[in-house]
Amino acid sequence: MKRTKIIDILQSQEYGQPVLAKGWVRTHRNSKSVHFIALNDGSTIKNVQIVADSEKFDADLFRLITTGACLSVEGLLTESPGSGQSCEIQAETINILGTCPADYPMQKKGQSFEYMRQYAHLRLRTNTFGAIMRIRHNMAMAIHTYFHNHGYYYFHTPLITASDCEGAGQMFQVTTKNLYDLKKDEEGKIVYDDDFFGKQTSLTVSGQLEGELGATALGAIYTFGPTFRAENSNTPRHLAEFWMIEPEIAFMDLEELMDLEEDFIKYCIRWALENCHDDLEFLNKMIDKGLLERLQNVVNTEFIRLPYTQGIEILQKAIAQGKQFEFPCNWGDDLASEHERYLVEEYFKKPVIMTNYPKDIKAFYMKIDEEKPVCNGKVMNDTVQGTDVLFPQIGEIIGGSVREENNDKLIAEIKRRNIPMKDMWWYLDTRKYGSCPHAGFGLGFERLILFVTGMQNIRDVIPFPRTPNNAEF
Ligand code: 4AD
Ligand code: MG
Prior knowledge:
Blueprint: H1 6-11, E1 18-30, E2 34-40, E3 48-53, H2 59-64, E4 70-79, E5 87-98, H3 113-117, H4 127-149, E6 153-154, E7 160-161, E8 173-174, E9 201-203, H5 208-218, E10 220-228, E11 241-250, H6 254-275, H7 277-286, H8 291-300, E12 304-307, H9 308-320, H10 337-347, E13 352-358, E14 374-375, E15 378-379, E16 383-391, E17 395-402, H11 407-416, H12 425-432, E18 438-444, H13 445-453
Parallel strand pairs: 3-5, 6-10, 12-13
Antiparallel strand pairs: 1-2, 1-4, 2-3, 4-5, 7-9, 8-9, 10-11, 11-18, 13-16, 14-15, 16-17, 17-18
Bound molecules: 4-amino-1,4-dioxobutan-2-aminium adenosine-5'-monophosphate and magnesium ion.
Magnesium ion (MG) binds at residues 388, 396, 399.
């Protein structure tokens, strides 16, 4: 007999028909004459209830049906008299595919997420992590569908790179050199000409620069892949290995970029609301009672678009009225997360797209604004057409910009920042040969999953997190 997935069994109304289910035991309880077994196979958050007459089966068999054990159950599908489920399986045969001893670490309910992180290989079998992983899959589908439907090409940028053009953070080196016997020059510097690529290479911190090559040929592309940053930020929002989505579009200006960011992110959240109903309902009940309402609000609200300079004025006014922050916020400072949270969660109570940041706190490739801003009546330094999308609970979820397409201005900025030009020749060719205005952004996939699931720690929305001092599993 062919196995039916539990998600399909629960929707079936073929009562009286035989059915074969396979899965892992969530709970097992019994009254005098019957045993009730809740079975889950990962296809849905919901369990199917197996009803087994005590007399029909050996008592030894029931003793092996412990939480976490894997079963194959054949029986008749029947309408369920109990509340909470429409149907159940009256067991005819039960086979134990895998027993589960009493030291199974996921046995107890209500374990802390911290505890479960030690068992990342087994936590996937819990209701919460099952829900998160199904939502994660659905978000990936939403992203591919959105871009495909809007005429973007999925463009694969390399994970191994010889440049740190982004300057986004510390990089992980990639080498086949013998670390115990390194070839060095007279000054004692490591020589890479005998390394695999004949030069120093690392794991990428962003696919953007190669993405720009794609966009200035194909018109509109997006990347979706792993990204690596070795910064030692041990926070609930940072991973050393995370997934980033980076669309890049020719002929797009700042207004259109913000429209895209807002439309795209709303599409993803709407997708979750439409396709992940049971899992979201579960998370809303068990993890975060405000989750569904927050998702609905974001879908139905217009994001605030706020130039950095105006943001600073709002923050300074709040400080003048007695609001206390740990960090200063003068024009030119990078906003701390407390400042972002104030604007998003207290002042506007909506997602905020912050724009036109001071040039010195953003990457070299951002297009410089024509006019200098005025802050509290004073003319300030140059700003750039960068955008950060700031979300309630999350902070920065997207970072993007219009790119500087003028070759001379871009080279001047590269020189000013002492970025080695020799690594950049291929990137600068986009500006030399048929340069075009273009823009793009990067969405942190796990930050999106954090928002959609209501989880608090980024380590809990990726199957096997990589963080400082943690590369287990
Ligand atoms: O703001 P970032 O550094 O921007 C870039 O890398 C640009 N090249 C993107 C582009 O314009 N194509 O990173 C983009 C997003 C952030 O907004 C954040 O959501 C996420 O990537 N991110 C991280 N997520 C998890 N762990 C980390 N260590 C992250 N660093 C950035
Ligand atoms: Mg950023």
